[in-house]
């Protein structure tokens, strides 16, 4: 937040805190839960045509069964690079090649792996909380600067700081809820 402007300051803070929550939800979607989910392959990048491209730009990913992903590669020459990228992505998946289609059976997760995934979900949530706190800090600094410059009164500053804290508190609740739901899904409870 560069400088305080009475009207759009709240919209900017809402946008930034919402962005942190959306980024968390996107990160959590990529965590394996033992069920087939097409977003599991979102982080996979493939070396094709001389550059690294997201898997979604070279193939179609579907979940035809609860424990199986299917990757339909569009260009036959890209089947091997796609298979290599999936194997090296660290997801614990071993593709079975069938022409231009790769079948990815989703193995059962061990209890140890479930706990690792739950810890990872917690670390993603902590990063999102840090981002939300940074938004609050930027907002508080902008409000203090505006009060010093005489753009707002001290009373108005205190009122706006309270509003800012409410926005931050709500984002923390949303972050905790998203992380708790994912942990529950991962641990199967």
> H/E element string?
HEEEEHEEHH
> What is the structural class?
alpha+beta
Any idea of the CATH topology of the largest domain?
Topoisomerase I, Chain A, domain 4
Figure out the total of helices. Answer: 4
CATH superfamily of the largest domain: Ribosome-recycling factor
What is the element layout, followed by pairings?
Layout: H1 9-29, E1 45-48, E2 51-54, E3 59-65, E4 68-73, H2 79-87, E5 96-98, E6 101-105, H3 111-148, H4 154-187
Antiparallel strand pairs: 1-2, 3-4, 4-6, 5-6
List keywords for this structure.
189 residues; alpha+beta; Topoisomerase I, Chain A, domain 4; Gyrase A, domain 2; 2 domains; four-stranded antiparallel sheet; 4 helices
Question: What would you say this structure looks like, in words?
Answer:
With 189 residues, this protein is an alpha+beta fold. It folds into 2 domains: 9-29 and 110-187, Orthogonal Bundle (Topoisomerase I, Chain A, domain 4), CATH 1.10.132.20; 38-105, Gyrase A, domain 2 (2-Layer Sandwich), CATH 3.30.1360.40. It has 4 helices and 6 strands. The strands form 2 sheets. A 4-stranded antiparallel beta sheet has the order 3-4-6-5. The two termini are 41 Å apart. The mean pLDDT is 84.
